[in-house]
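Section handout 9: paired folding examples.
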Amino acid sequence: MMFLKLISSLLLAYIPTAASSAFKDCIPNDTELGPFNPPAFASTVVNTTTFYSLLPPSPTPLPLLVFMHGSTGEWDFYNDSLSFVSTHGFAVVFPFVKSPEKDKSPFTTNTDGTYLLKAIQFAKDQNADPTSPMYQKIDVSSVIIAGHSMGATCSINAALAYPDALAVIAMHPGICGPFGPPPCPSCWKSEDLAKVGRAMPVVFTTATNDGAFWPAPLTAKHEHGCYLNSFGEDQGDWDGEKSLFAQFNADVCGEDGERSPVKDGGHNCPMKRVSGGKPEMAVLLKAAKLYGQMGGDEETDCHGMLYGGEDVEGSLRQLNQTDVMELRG
């Protein structure tokens, strides 16, 4: 009997689980919908907070991606790309501060991460509720925190308060404090991002033609300085988790007219809808897959495409889309 148990244990050790086998590695031309399609959309209000969610069909629980919009940001600015990401195996929760309509106002703001934390709790509650369509559909131990602009500042502050997240993806966050714009407490601090970076991997993106706070390229230059203040001037200065700073060039983050009259270049580069939201939402997908699905495995193509050199097909360096790239860890 003991011999049979031993054989059974050994066999099980070599059989991949349904969850791990369901997720595919990254590919260079990631413009096609993933195998988890189509995601079901839902709008749910809990204690006056509205959450939009995407839940694709899956035989096993899926990792969670919580994403916060920027100031005046609308679901329509991100839904194409987030739906695309969802088809690659993610439950997505997108919170609002006041409501989908009121969040379009520049006077509706939040930067402390409260609503991303609410989104995580919402997913956990729905996952535990037998009456919810999300019941036991989400792997609530696998959380990726992300956001754009104001939402990116939120993502840093939420990750500071939720160190169990697997990674944070901050796309064009507001200027780091204590001075502005925006001044603290409506900001993030380099020392706080460093704390986050010791708990989880960090992916930080901006663009050379981002003119949100100062005329380009000064905004990106300042963001780069904030990153260096967090993770050190040189690779050897950092002893925490892996981090990436990617400053995309003006060619890939230029206006393409796809959202006219709304701009989708420069600071709004993550709002691009073409080709799965390239270039920045493509980075979000690779980072989310690497840490949410691949356990950060450095042998995966996802890892190579984020951190690899010019000899790696589909890597940021090989695609030559960035003016500045920094790697730590």
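Moving on to protein 2 of 2.
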Amino acid sequence: GVFMYNHLQQKVRNAEALAQKYKQQQEALSAQLQVVYEHRSRLERSLQKERGEHKKTKEDFLVYKLEAQEALNKEKQDSMNRYGALSSQHKILKNQHEDVKKQLLDLQLQHNSLKLEHRKTLETHSQKYAQLQQEKDSEVTNLQDTVFKLREESKLLRKAHQEVHSQLLSAQTQMEEFRQFKEALQKMPSFK
């Protein structure tokens, strides 16, 4: 009986020690589990914060993209308007240049005709020099005045022609600048 009692007491002590060991293990696991829960909670808060920041960044990017697209469309429209204006101005200047060239040609023909007429008149006056000296001098003076005026008009027309030519060159330069600008726009992917 004593032996059985001692044996049972030994088993009880062993069971209590084992129970104490399991209790410590359970407490350690509970502490570890608490740490894991806290870490998970921090990760979830961090993830929620990252999602909020990502959403805000995405919204900011969409706003920036929309503003950039609007600015590009406005710049494209302005460029097309400027191109149209330059094209119209170029046509007007070209027509003016052609008109001035035609006027200059007509004046040159008229001038040549007057020179020929003047030469014939001088020859006629030379033949009648003895008889019509006074009349010839008067006519020569009048013809010289006419030639002087025509030369002055020719100088003015040449000057006007040079001014129109300069304007045309300036318009061509503007067209070249616009063409380069247009090519630069076309190279941009968003423009296409």
